[in-house]
Write a sequence for this structure.
């Protein structure tokens, strides 16, 4: 396997740590604004095995913030488009692409289908997010969960903390509430921003799968959150305290 393309990473990490990443398997669920960038960061770091999951297609409105969204691929599957991009980055990548929205039984089946070293939850709707998280925790799978990037403008406010320490984030608050009902109050990292949101920028929508509202989003915030999510995974895989 040619690792010339990873020579800068090897200069930083050393060969042993690069080997550890090459032998790691990361599962990413949700490949939108945050998830797409987080996934590419994982691949470019040299993780050797990845499973990527998303049932959505690329929409015109995705182009302001999503990595794979282009005029030329509007209407195509996000997972397929991102998968092709990842293989162009690392042709030796062991990649599984899952083109579907996961129901509760399918989440369980997915988590039991292989040995995952880390799970990245980049789902932007509450119910499947809760189900993925609870099933990861019940299986003792290491997990990091991305909260909302929409409505925010200041990347310096992005934070990494245990879910119990998150605050001033509506998605994190709703997530905590749902998890508390199941007796879960802590135990996994979240990437969130406590930046105040202009609620007049949130709009109710109808007829979209898994969506009840949309919020204004600037181009650079999802990549920033995605990079933070990826950093949690990479550092944890390398045995660093996160």
């Amino acid at each position: 396997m040619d690792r010339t393309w990873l020579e800068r990473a090897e200069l930083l990490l050393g060969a042993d740590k690069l080997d550890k990443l090459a032998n790691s398997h990361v599962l990413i669920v949700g490949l939108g604004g945050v998830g797409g960038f987080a996934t590419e960061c994982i691949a470019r770091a040299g993780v050797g095995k990845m499973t990527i999951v998303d049932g959505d297609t690329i929409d015109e409105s995705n182009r302001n913030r999503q990595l794979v969204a282009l005029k030329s691929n509007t209407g195509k599957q996000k997972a397929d488009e991102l998968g092709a991009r990842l293989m162009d980055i690392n042709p030796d990548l062991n990649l599984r692409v899952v083109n579907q929205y996961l129901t509760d039984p399918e989440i369980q089946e997915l988590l039991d289908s292989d040995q995952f070293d880390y799970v990245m939850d980049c789902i932007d709707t509450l119910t499947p997010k809760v189900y993925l998280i609870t099933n990861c925790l019940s299986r003792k799978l290491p997990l990091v969960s991305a909260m909302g990037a929409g409505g925010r403008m200041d990347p310096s406010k992005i934070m990494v903390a245990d879910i119990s320490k998150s605050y001033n984030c509506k998605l994190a608050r709703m997530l905590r509430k749902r998890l508390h009902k199941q007796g879960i109050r802590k135990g996994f990292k979240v990437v969130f921003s406590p930046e105040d949101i202009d609620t007049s920028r949130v709009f109710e929508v109808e007829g979209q799968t898994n969506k009840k509202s949309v919020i204004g989003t600037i181009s650079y915030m999802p990549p920033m959150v995605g990079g933070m999510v990826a950093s949690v995974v990479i550092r944890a895989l390398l045995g660093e305290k996160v």
Notes: The radius of gyration is 17 Å. The chain has a mean pLDDT of 95. Residues 73 and 170 are 32 Å apart (CA to CA). The first strand starts at residue 25 and ends at 29.
